[in-house]
Design a protein that fits this description.
By secondary structure, this protein is of the alpha/beta class. The protein is built from 16 helices and 8 strands. Strands 1-8-5-4-2-3 form a 6-stranded parallel β-sheet, with helices on both faces. Strands 6-7 form a two-stranded antiparallel sheet. Helix 11 runs antiparallel to helix 12 and helix 11 (261-276) packs across helix 15. The longest helix has 21 residues, at 214-234. The N and C termini lie far apart (47 Å). The structure holds zinc ion. NAD(+) binds at residues 92-96, 114-117, 123. Glycerol binds at residues 119, 166, 245, 261.
Length: 348
């Protein structure tokens, strides 16, 4: 089995300033540059200096404001044939968009997140809008991932809390994967499961959970990267996505104003861990020690939507066995969500 994983990795302070140098070291001279909406003014000067000093030519530039698949098709057609690499700079939208553009044109992608709110910056799929509905589509695996930890630290805190939510929830996702094996015989890729669990462990057992600490930011970013790699190894999203993701996807459907994906899966992970039992105390510690629970007190999810999402969640993905598939569990979970003190602080 041949597995394609990112080969260029830099996760460190001030990595953005060296972006031109990294490109040149890899032999790239001519690039297409895609900006996330609203970030160009903050990074334009840094990028110009970085590219000029490394003699990198920007052949094509575009600001990405949408994640509609039709726009991605149009952008793919506009890419100059001489363009050697696509560089995606910004948040999840531009990176998802560019993963698909690069996939269509079969050119390498450099993923350069300026904020981290989930594990998508290194995963092999994109979340795009297809015919008005959000869908997950196969995309390219980034050739490289460059993360400037100082830039990530400067972004609004909600994003990094989202990243944390999409990281500690891997513990409930992997539990569900193993439960599916016991109930349906679905194959568990042990290596992918281990990589993903190790990433969650690195976060859980890192003591100084202080967002001002660049090393902590590096731990979160590199662990999320590893969960993306676990999905590449598994060939599906199972290591990174279980019942907590079903609840979050259901919440997206019933709520007019959904929150960040990572915040939703984080809250849902705590909820479903109640049913899993083995994971409950650990997830409880994760959300308390990281400040996630306190943060959610200030930006709670909608209680009514969350309760409706619980009942919709088992039907979100056909043939996807999780703890929610067991008879009577939704009712038990509903009671827990309505009565647990910590849970209630995260729902408004
Ligand atoms: Zn996720």
């Amino acid at each position: 089995m041949e597995i394609q994983v990112p080969s260029l990795l830099r996760i460190k302070p001030r990595a953005l300033q060296k972006l031109g140098k990294y490109l040149r070291q890899e032999g790239f001279r001519k690039i297409s540059l895609f900006w996330g909406g609203g970030i160009q003014e903050f990074f334009q000067e840094t990028m110009e200096i970085s590219f000029a000093s490394a003699e990198i030519r920007v052949l094509y530039e575009e600001v990405v404001e949408t994640n509609d698949i039709d726009n991605a098709f149009a952008s793919a057609k506009k890419l100059p044939p001489e363009s050697e690499v696509v560089v995606a700079l910004g948040g999840g939208t531009v990176i998802d968009y560019c993963k698909y553009v690069a996939f269509l044109n079969q050119v390498p992608l450099l993923s350069v997140p300026t904020l981290i709110s989930n594990d998508a910056f290194a995963s092999p799929t994109s979340s795009l809008v297809v015919d008005g509905r959000r869908k997950t589509v196969k995309s390219t695996v980034p050739y490289g991932v460059i993360i400037d930890t100082e830039t990530i630290r400067r972004a609004p805190r909600k994003f990094l809390y989202g990243g944390i939510g999409d990281l500690f929830c891997k513990t409930t996702a992997i539990y569900d994967w193993k439960l599916a094996y016991k109930n349906t015989g679905e194959v568990v890729n042990d290596f992918a499961a281990t990589v993903c669990q190790n990433a969650a462990d690195t976060f859980t057992f890192y003591e100084n959970k202080n967002m001002d600490d660049l090393e902590y930011v590096r731990i979160i970013a590199s662990s999320l990267l590893m969960t993306g790699i676990a999905m590449i190894i598994a060939g599906n999203s199972r290591p990174a996505s279980g019942s907590e993701h079903l609840v979050s996807h259901a919440y997206d459907r019933v709520c007019d104003e959904p929150s960040l994906h990572g915040l939703q899966v984080g809250v849902a992970s705590y909820a479903v861990s109640y049913l899993q039992k083995d994971t409950h105390e650990r997830i409880r510690q994760d959300i308390i020690s990281s400040g996630f629970a306190d943060f959610m007190k200030e930006t709670p999810l909608n209680r009514e939507c969350f309760l409706r999402a619980l009942f919709l969640a088992p039907d979100i993905k056909q043939g996807f066995f999780t703890i929610l598939s067991e008879r009577g569990n939704i009712e038990k979970l509903h009671d827990f969500v309505c009565t647990d003190e910590l849970m209630n602080t995260m729902l408004g």
